[in-house]
Amino acid sequence: MRSARSGPGGRALTRLVTALLHAGAASVAAQAPARPDTTVPAGTVVGSVVAAQTGGPLEDALVLLEPAPAGAMPPAPGGPSFWGGGRAARTDASGAYRFDGLAAGRYGLHVRRLGYRPASLEIDLRGDSPLRVSVGLVVVPNALEAVDVAGASPAPIAILRADADAAGRARLMAEEDRRGRFLASDTRALTAADLTEAVTLGETDLFRALQRLPGVATRDDFTAELWTRGGRWTDTRVTFDGLPLFSPVHVAGVFAGVDPDAVGSAFFHPGVRPAASGEGAAATLDLRSRPATEPGLHGLAELSVISARAALEHGPNGAGIGWMLAARRSYVDLAADLLAALKSDSTIAVPYSFTDLAGRLDISLGGARALEVSGLSAADALRGTVPNLLRQNQGRWGDAAVQATLVTPVGGLVARFTTGVSRFDVRVRPSCATRPATFSPTAR
């Protein structure tokens, strides 16, 4: 038996026959009719709406289907029995929509969603099969009208909190507030975190916190007085709500004479200062009272090594009246009296104490008008007898200030009209004196 061998011509013939068979099969498949989608009935338009950038589904997009000009649409299943001019549908969570019971013809499909560019296209629905149409929308941010929201920003110096994140945010807010208020780059703002970190001698002290700043020093460790760039303490002007304080220290300069709970902001100007500050050959310290910013009644109490202090505030819920009251008193004299009574020893006596009282009242007058009233009283008191030193002496000295400010719009600006008075009184009555000696410098 002879074996058949195929040469180059035979192999070419084989490949040709195989190609013809494949082409014939493809032709037969192409001529076969396509099977309709039996899952969706005829006369139906279905599809989905997605975000063009991500491909994710868009929920609650509005899809409008309108007939071609001069056309009409049959009523929707379960809807009114009359023919209408169009239908609307909302996409579900998967972005899908659906219109059933449509007649064959040409329609206009419009898709809209807030924050995306609207899309419109024409579709041709044939009666023998449904139509699937998916639409991708492009994001287009919409410019809305500005909304003015009135509110009080939290004060840089507020109720102390031991939260590191809150302290960092407070410093950023204080710095932003400083840049908005003052042009001078060397102006420094004090925050509640600065006060906490600068606690010395067991007492929260505003002035000692400022001594940490560059260019600020003091005479020695036993005084809170500020010496700025070599200038003496008497060359630094301290103001409270714009009114000068003549000697804002206690215990001959050991402690600051301002309760920190009453201060909302503190700005230190070691160089160029605003024209409204004035005075102060070396520097100016601008202290502002703290308004009540949080709605409702709030309180704070603290006991230190030297004094006890408390603060109470009530903020309005929207427009209304807000108030704040802060008080501080040293208690070393009371502790000494108690110890002397327990030990029956009259030589145990500390006839000295200091007291701070500050408050603020904010009244909304409607619109952009408001009334602000604030006051401060800082007093040192000397009383009683110390063997071989004092005998029935009485003395009292300290600062006092009160001011009222009316905030009202004038044209396109907001004006502030302020009136106030501050003074420093000294009243000492020695045991041999018949009348008290007084000294009262006053600034108006």
Give me a quick take on this structure.
By secondary structure, the protein is mainly beta. It contains five helices and 26 strands.
Average pLDDT, rounded to a whole number, is 81
How many domains is the backbone divided into? 2
End-to-end separation: 136 Å
Shape: elongated
Q: Cα-atom Rg, whole angstroms?
A: 42 Å
Low-confidence stretches: 1-6, 19-36
The CATH fourth-level homologous superfamily of the largest domain: TonB-dependent receptor, plug domain
Question: How would you describe this protein?
Answer:
This protein has five helices and 26 strands. With 444 residues, the protein is mostly beta strands. It has two domains: 45-137, Sandwich (Immunoglobulin-like), CATH 2.60.40.1120; 164-443, Ferric Hydroxamate Uptake Protein, Chain A, domain 1. The strands form six sheets. Strands 18, 19, 20, 21, 22, 23, 24, 25 and 26 form a nine-stranded antiparallel β-sheet that branches. Strands 9-16-17-12-13 form a five-stranded mixed β-sheet. A hairpin with a 6-residue loop joins strand 5 and strand 6. The longest helix is centred in the N-terminal third of the chain and has 24 residues, at 8-31. The chain is elongated. 27% of the residues are buried. The model is unreliable at 1-6 and 19-36 (pLDDT under 50).
